[in-house]
Amino acid sequence: MKYCLRILIVGVILFFSNGLHSQKYLKKVEKGELKVAYFASGCFWCVEAIYESIRGVEEVVSGYSGGHTLNPTYKSTGTGKTGHAETVAVYYNPKIVSYVNLVDAYFGSQDPTTFGQNPDFGSAYRSIIFYQGNHEREVATKYFKGLNNAVYKGKMVTEIVAFKKFYKAEEYHQNFEKLHPQNPYVQGVSIPRLNRFKKKFPELLK
After folding, report:
1. What does DSSP assign to residue 125?
2. Residue 19 CB: number of other CB atoms within 10 A?
3. Which of 14, 32, 105, 167 is the most exposed place for a label (fewest CB within 10 A)?
4. What is the mean pLDDT of residues 91-118?
């Protein structure tokens, strides 16, 4: 009984502390100190870790976006029937890192010709840039067209769509790579992908 009560108390503390943590960044966005951008390119454990490594990024939150159902979960998104994709919300300081830098990192850290990223394929892992406003749309579109013509020869499948709503993922997905470095998936997929990014973009790193 005491053990169950202890678990319940810890759960309540984590719930409220994480809520306060999220509010801190949202307030910074409201004040204009930070901006938030939304990207999907495979497993959000991998993408979160990549953006967390970029100088000027203060926080990255894993979640779901791009679908037609309310309150998606990891399980429901994985079925491919909700239309949602694993997505990250990137809170960044535009005085330190630009949206152009984030898009450059986005395309440079994935294979934009596949419907997902190895070993995760399907609609839940597809490549999407969720733009907010004309500037973000123009930046994403310019990058897409340039790479698609010069590098990928018309094979890119990245979607560029207007942002509608972001649903934060379950708490155990947040900071997953950082908290579970010995996890087999993290060891075999996430960390190698992060290291490839670091080698390619040393100038962006913290």
Report:
1. G
2. 9
3. 32
4. 96
Section 3-17 average pLDDT: 40
CA distance 24 to 79: 33
Classify 62 as helix, strand or coil.
Answer: strand
Active-site residue, selected from the candidate residues 43, 102, 124, 186: 43
Phi (first) and psi of residue 68, to 5 degrees: -120, 0
- Residue 43 annotated among the catalytic residues of the structure: yes
Residue 110 DSSP class? S
Whether residue 189 is predicted with pLDDT greater than 80 in this model: the reply is yes
CA–CA distance, 206 with 196 (Å, rounded to integer): 15
Share of the chain above pLDDT 70, in %: 89
What's the rounded mean pLDDT across residues 168-192?
Answer: 96
**1: confidence class by pLDDT, cuts 50, 70, 90:** very low
Residues 83 and 124: beta-carbon distance below 8 Å: no
Find all residues with CB under 8 Å of 195, minimum gap 6, and list them: none
C-alpha torsion sign, points 62, 192, 106, 84: negative
> Residue 103 above 60 pLDDT?
yes
Q: How many residues comprise the chain?
A: 206
